[in-house]
């Protein structure tokens, strides 16, 4: 649906996006996360053709956007809705007039505009606010109006640029639920740019981490949190594990509901090793749960425990004293 290949963009000779490769699938909710200034918004603006780029290509629904004329580009943009942190509503127009605006620009008949706007205001839960002015609405309600407006031209893609950053957590949750409904009911691909990891966890199927102009990691959200690539640890401010001398830590990766009791029972009864559960960090993601269970044990028993886990299909990472986390295939 959105294929980005070797994208390079500079402002005044200073690169802001370098060798970006990204595939966003039809009807998924894709999150782009990264620190402020990493290049996320620029990437979003390149996708909808608001921003040109210096090299590489972006293909949206089979259309190579670099090859479009100005007129074709504006027609292309009809199929991409966008919402922003500051809502971008016109303060002197009523709610329904704000929602009808894109249809006015494209000369939809008056009655069709009103009918569509009313339907969309119902979808976003604001049927009773059609004649209100923006200043009479809360932040969450303003963003709902902006979402309704973004959907008027029946886009294939909805781009969200820090759309919940100005909202408190409870309102953010309700807006994310609305975006998930829009995705489910209308089949619209949703791309969310945010610096807020909670947004990614709550609603995205897959994610990319933008760091220092590049894609530092990409994949299924729960898998990425299980793998903990360095770019994710940096964003979360998570430190490497400190392991006491002579000890080791086995980090078990858990998916969907936590650890299997039979596995833990077997670990105790078959291996007969002393260990201590020192931490667990299972979290809820969109449609699944995932996290880790940390076991501390004697370094001498680490390899045996690791091989046991792998033999039971339990993904794990072994960390020895003074060592760095290793993957499933690492021999410490
Ligand atoms: P993010 O969305 O991750 O916070 P941006 O895409 O907004 O990052 O910005 C990436 C970099 O590009 C920043 O260093 C920013 O200062 C720079 N930048 C963004 N827009 C412009 C512009 N119009 N002119 C010059 N530099 C810009």
Summarize the structure.
This protein is α/β, with parallel strands linked by helices and 332 residues long.
- Secondary structure: helix percent: 25-40%
Give me the side-by-side strand order of the main sheet.
6-7-8-3-9-10
What is the strand tally? Answer: 15
Beta-strand percent range: 25-35%
Shape-level CATH architecture of the largest domain: 3-Layer(aba) Sandwich
Global shape:
elongated
Output the number of helix runs. Answer: 11
- The number of domains: 2
Q: Which structural class best describes the helix and strand composition?
A: alpha/beta
End-to-end CA span: 42 Å
Reading the helices and strands in chain order gives: EEEHEEHEHHHEHEHEEHHEHEEEHE
Overall radius of gyration: 24 Å
The third-level CATH topology of the largest domain is Rossmann fold
Largest sheet: 6 strands, mixed
- Please write the CATH class name of the largest domain: Alpha Beta
- Name the CATH superfamily assignment of the largest domain: P-loop containing nucleotide triphosphate hydrolases
Query: Mean pLDDT, as a whole number?
Result: 90
Low-confidence stretches: 324-332
List ligands, each type once.
adenosine-5'-diphosphate
Quickly list its features.
332 residues; alpha/beta; Rossmann fold; Alpha-Beta Plaits; 2 domains; 6-stranded mixed beta sheet; 5-stranded antiparallel beta sheet; 11 helices; 15 strands; disordered C terminus; binds adenosine-5'-diphosphate
């Amino acid at each position: 649906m959105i294929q980005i290949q070797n994208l390079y963009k500079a402002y005044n000779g200073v690169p802001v996006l370098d060798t970006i490769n990204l595939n966003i699938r039809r009807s998924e909710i894709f999150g782009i996360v990264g620190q402020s200034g990493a290049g996320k918004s620029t990437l979003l603006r390149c996708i909808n053709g608001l921003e040109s780029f210096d090299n590489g290509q972006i293909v949206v629904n089979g259309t190579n956007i670099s090859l479009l004329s100005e007129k074709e580009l504006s027609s292309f943009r009809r199929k991409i809705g966008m919402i922003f942190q500051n809502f971008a509503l016109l303060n002197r127009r009523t709610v329904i007039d704000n929602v009808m605006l894109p249809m006015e620009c494209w000369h939809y008949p008056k009655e069709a505009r009103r009918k569509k706007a009313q339907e969309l205001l119902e979808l976003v839960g604001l049927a009773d606010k059609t004649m209100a002015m923006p200043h009479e609405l809360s932040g969450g309600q303003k963003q709902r109006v902006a979402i309704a407006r973004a959907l008027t031209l029946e886009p294939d893609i909805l781009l969200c640029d820090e759309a919940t950053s100005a909202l408190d957590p409870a309102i953010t949750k309700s807006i994310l639920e609305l975006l998930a409904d829009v995705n489910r009911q209308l089949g619209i691909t949703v791309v969310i740019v945010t610096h807020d990891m909670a947004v990614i966890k709550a609603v995205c199927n897959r994610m990319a981490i933008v760091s220092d102009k590049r894609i530092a990691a990409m994949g299924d959200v729960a898998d990425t949190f299980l793998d903990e690539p360095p770019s994710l640890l940096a964003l979360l401010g998570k430190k490497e594990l400190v392991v006491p001398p002579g000890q080791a830590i086995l980090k078990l990766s858990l998916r969907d509901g936590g650890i299997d009791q039979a596995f833990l029972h077997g670990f105790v009864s078959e291996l007969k090793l002393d260990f201590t559960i020192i931490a667990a960090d299972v979290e809820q993601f969109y449609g699944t749960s995932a996290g880790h269970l940390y076991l501390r044990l004697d370094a001498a028993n680490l390899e045996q425990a690791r091989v046991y886990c792998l033999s039971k299909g339990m993904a794990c990472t072994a960390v020895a004293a003074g060592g760095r986390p290793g993957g499933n295939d690492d021999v410490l």
